[in-house]
Amino acid sequence: xxxxxxxVDVQNDFCPGGALAVPGGDEVVAPINAMMAQFETVIxxxxxxxxxxxxxxxxxxxxxxxxxxxxxxxxxVLWPDHCVQxxxxxxxxxxxxxxxxxxxxxxxxxxxxxxxxxxxxxxTTPTGLEGYLRSRxxxxxxxxxxxxxxxxxxTALDAARLGFEVxxxxxxxxxxxxxxxxxxxxxxxxEAGIALQS
Length: 198
Ligand code: VGL
Ligand code: ZN
Description:
The chain is an alpha/beta fold. It has helices at residues 29-36, 129-135, 148-161, 181-191, and strands spanning 3-8, 41-47, 68-71, 74-77, 102-106, 140-146, 165-174, 195-197. Helices cover 20% and strands 23% of the residues. Helix 3 (148-161) runs parallel beside helix 4 (181-191). The structure holds pyrazine-2-carboxylic acid and zinc ion (ZN). The site of zinc ion (ZN) has 7 residues, from loops. Pathway: Cofactor biosynthesis; nicotinate biosynthesis; nicotinate from nicotinamide: step 1/1. Residues 4-195 form the Isochorismatase-like domain. InterPro entries: Isochorismatase-like_dom (IPR000868), Isochorismatase-like_sf (IPR036380), Isochorismatase_Nicotinamidase (IPR052347).
């Protein structure tokens, strides 16, 4: 099998009641569990920040969540504190199947955020996921999870840039949609030749 499923950040903090709740975030669990049965290789990503992470508004005096700040690697949206390592908010949704082959944690370096499962937000520091997939002979990827316009889109765009054939299952994704970020992400994914499935 040359195809893998990547399940992006289906964690409590991105579900209703969580610190950075994505509207309808928990609705992806059932369709993703069903998808998992169709794939021999399943990888889950997990947003995994140290307390005080530089992507948190609380780490920037005078800044509020959803404002932006200039970092050495570019513009960074500031988020409410979320997915802090070892907390319940960072745990996977309790109904999500987590019996995949690999869990890739990201966003653990204090000074840089990582939306993508492949590269941190400087778009160059690798997570190791590419090597894992290549050494397993995987060339095609299906993606689902949270959030469509941030971690799913960044992962999909990096995958396409690396030469993987990518499909995003939009029915199993939900978006944050900050100032048109969903439409922008959909346009960028289409432009990159990513198949969008609804
Ligand atoms: C995400 C914002 C901050 C995501 C993670 O999973 O889309 N968004 N950290
Ligand atoms: Zn995060």
